Amino acid sequence: MKLIVIVGSSRSHGVSSQVVSLIRRHLEGRASVQDLWLRDYRIDYCDADNACSHTDCLLQDDVAAIVEEMAKADAILYLPVMHAYGTNSRFQAFLERVGYGFLRPRERPLRDKLAAVAVVGRRYGHTAVFSQVVLNVLLNKMVLVGSGFPATFNTQLVQDPEAEQALRETLDRLLEHFHKLNERPRQGVERLRLLKQVQFQTG
């Protein structure tokens, strides 16, 4: 399994970096892990011209490259940080530009890709950020994997064993589902889509 971790933090040696290290240690020898730090990419804000209803967004930044990396992965773990009771502005811009400017006109190419969410922040608002990203995962028709409790890391703690355990169990379930989905050869047949595409009007 190839896992890509989308990291929202701008800090090189903060809690998010520790979480990425935990992911690498836990999956060592069982999966490949690529951490993609949004701070390393130019992500412009959406200009709301609605021209991307049927074609890729025309803004010239690095979002298309991020989308290509996501498409190569078997699973995606979203790792936002919390600012002012919500996700930080860079991660918000990422969600908006990727989903609205690329995944929508391409008819949700991340459909059926495995996804999980972990959140880093102080002791307030974790679940609000978690819920926001979960809704984005569902919007893009991905398969959400969890461990029963959200992996929400409190930056005021030197160690957060409960969050660490929730994350380890989430990673194990990602692997479990990946193997279940791939234990039978597809023989080139397109996977059955249980739900028809729903097209909503813009207004």
Automatic annotation (TrEMBL):
Ranges where the NADPH-dependent FMN reductase-like domain occurs: 1-149
Stored SUPFAM superfamilies: Flavoproteins
Pfam families according to UniProt: FMN_red (PF03358)
Keywords: Flavoprotein, FMN
Statement: the UniProt record of this protein carries the keyword Lipid biosynthesis: no
Domain of life: Bacteria
InterPro entries linked: Flavoprotein-like_sf (IPR029039), FMN_Rdtase-like_dom (IPR005025), ISF_SsuE-like (IPR051796)
PANTHER family for this protein: NAD(P)H-DEPENDENT FMN-CONTAINING OXIDOREDUCTASE YWQN-RELATED
Protein name, UniProt field: Flavodoxin family protein
High-level lineage: Bacteria, Pseudomonadati, Pseudomonadota, Gammaproteobacteria, Pseudomonadales
